[in-house]
Write a structure and sequence with these properties.
Largest sheet: 5 strands, parallel
Oligomer: single chain
Order of helices and strands: EHEEEHEEHEHEHHEH
Strand order of the largest sheet: 2-7-1-8-9
Radius of gyration: 19 Å
Structural class: alpha/beta
Shape: globular
Number of helices: 7
CATH superfamily of one domain: P-loop containing nucleotide triphosphate hydrolases
Number of strands: 9
Helix content: 40-55%
CATH class of one domain: Alpha Beta
Bound molecules: guanosine-5'-monophosphate
Distance between the termini: 20 Å
Strand content: 15-25%
CATH topology of one domain: Rossmann fold
CATH architecture of one domain: 3-Layer(aba) Sandwich
């Protein structure tokens, strides 16, 4: 029996500092059939970031030009910077039957939900174990100054209010455990889809014979 594959749009949102970036990287390493959607941003590149790997860093002017050309599936403004997910990443993943993973905020997630079939989307909201832990992680990361940390912390608290818009909410206490859980959910979703397909085929057969 051939198992049909279906590529999904996987969304992972979480307040910055909840460990999302590491989590996405680990997940991609673990699952060979996922492509990461590399966003465009008008914010400055951080020291440890790589152009074309973490983001495509562009000027605000260039960002707006691309936006006007309908280059993006969705865009959002965070901390006075623009972010956008390009369409072409989805097409590339679809061609090779890979899932595509979006590391985007709740505003972006809402837009994706509006523009695609519900069946096609698996969305996760990752929570830090506590607000205190979140602050500790933001400070430990050491890449932002105090103002930036406080801005991100208040934004995180705002963002966390949207967790109930997501199908899966996970608390990231142990990164490896969280990655395994996400992997299982993605594979389980695939399984349900395949079972449905097989069931549909069998039903048709029964009806037609
Ligand atoms: P950071 O500047 O820390 O890399 O990202 C700030 C926030 O913007 C994070 O919550 C991140 O998930 C979100 N973000 C990154 N890229 C995109 C994007 O293309 N679209 C949307 N809507 N949010 C994004």
């Amino acid at each position: 029996m051939s198992i049909e594959k279906k590529n999904r749009l996987i969304i992972i949102s979480s307040p910055s500092g909840a460990g999302k970036t590491t989590l996405c990287k680990l997940l991609i390493k673990k699952m060979k059939n996922i492509n990461l959607s590399i966003s465009y941003t008008s914010r400055n590149k951080r020291l440890n970031e790589v152009e074309g790997k973490d983001y495509f860093f562009v000027s605000e002017k260039k960002f707006n030009q691309l936006k006007n050309k309908n280059y993006f599936v969705e865009t959002a403004k965070n901390f006075n910077n623009f972010y956008g997910s390009p369409f072409n990443n989805i097409k590339k993943a679809e061609k090779i039957n890979h899932h595509i993973l979006f590391d985007i905020d709740w505003k972006g997630a809402r837009k994706i939900r509006k523009n695609f079939d519900k069946e096609k989307i698996i969305d996760f909201f990752i929570l830090p174990p506590s607000k205190t832990e979140l602050k500790r992680r933001l400070i430990k990361r050491g890449r932002d100054n105090n103002n930036e940390i406080n801005l991100r912390l208040s934004y995180a608290i705002e963002e966390m209010k949207h967790f109930n818009e997501y199908k899966y909410v996970l608390i990231n206490e142990n990164i490896k455990k969280t990655v395994n859980e996400i992997k299982k959910i993605i594979e389980y979703n695939q399984l349900i889809f395949n079972q449905k397909k097989i069931l549909n085929k069998s039903l048709k057969k029964i009806i037609n014979t």
